[in-house]
Hints:
Oligomer: single chain
Structural class: alpha+beta
CATH superfamily of the largest domain: Intergrase catalytic core
Number of strands: 13
CATH architecture of the largest domain: Orthogonal Bundle
Number of domains: 3
Helix content: 40-55%
Amino acid sequence: MVPMWYPPTWYLNIAWYHFSTISDGANMASVCEDGVYQLEDGYWAYRFSIVVDGRRISRKKRTDEQGKKLRTRKLALKAREAAIGAAYLEMRQPQKPIARRTVHEVFREYCQTGRSGKAYQTIRKQDSLWENHLSERFGKRFIDDISVAEVQDYLTELYYQHGYAYKYVEGFLKMFYLIFGQAYSRNYLAVDTYNKLCVNKDTKIGMPKLKGEEDLSIVVFSNDELSLLDEYFKGSNAETAYMLGRYCGLRINECYGMKWSNVDLEKGTILIDRQMQYQDGVIKLVAPKTRNSKRLLYMNATLKAYFLELAKRREEDRVRFAAQREQKQTWVEDFGGGMISSLELVNCLPEGKIQTVNSMKFHSRTIKEKLGIDFKFHHLRHTYGTRMAELNTPAHLLQNQMGHAYIHITQRYYIAVSQSGVEILQGKLNQL
């Protein structure tokens, strides 16, 4: 056990928290004067911040040293005391000498040791940012020579001078964070330097100020636009993908990677556990975007009725197109390592021809020309999320349906105001 003692108060400064509302994941709670607070699920948590020799360390946890949940206030206080003692001892340990490495050496180490389990597209994006931008600018520099101001100026240059999109520049910020994190984990950066670069909210690298004209808002189709889209897609080769986007808010890769074996018509559920991607020009089924992307979805009555009819047609097509299927079916590598037929995918034409994410590009152009709607498949996801938020769906349930890794992403839909939301608001105002 870590000894429960502390240095004199003039040497160790412990920040005590008075009653205030804080967010701990999806839970809201009040922090007590002693630094512990109860979560909405009934368990307890603690937080503290200490300063030793001018160095600050902060903690916020929901478990004790053994990783067990804190069931009582007493246990939370005990765990907090132990954590403060451990943090103090950690900060009083003599610092190991810093081994100097270049940014290129750190990134190479990250590629060798830190990318296991990363999605293929994530790796490709990281490699692209490094090879096309960061390598030449920072590669030969020592990692401990890079300053906050230097990186901040670089991000500002990318955004304002080169005109890169805000979301694209965010990718650079994430790259800097992971490179500095790799360096810190290998003792190439001192803790104070790392905290200044990536942790301390007052000093760490951040995004440039958003341009006033840049629109990062959620795009929502109106009811009139949805009616036009319903009519357009009915009977088309992209109808199934459209229905999944409209009534489940699926990502386009998830739509085209869906297998019939993951559809339970009796229960009205769909298991999302893979997605379709092009990897080096080859169609593959891979694991979902994030851990939270693997999820069980529930169909509404409209979508369930559509799938019941689709399943019926599938059985009829099995006999009707038997000869064509032998010729036109495509074999695709599944993420488990085996090969599956395109006939096992929900988005497959009756004669066996595979449908891919590229199948939607033609429809996007046609819709723009014929209907005057700037159609992007992802906007169906925006529409679904916003409509569900308007119906007061609990945020944690919507987070699961959308497959978001973090609740704050889901909360954007509760902030977004669609036309229907404006109408609801106006109706409420008229009742005053």
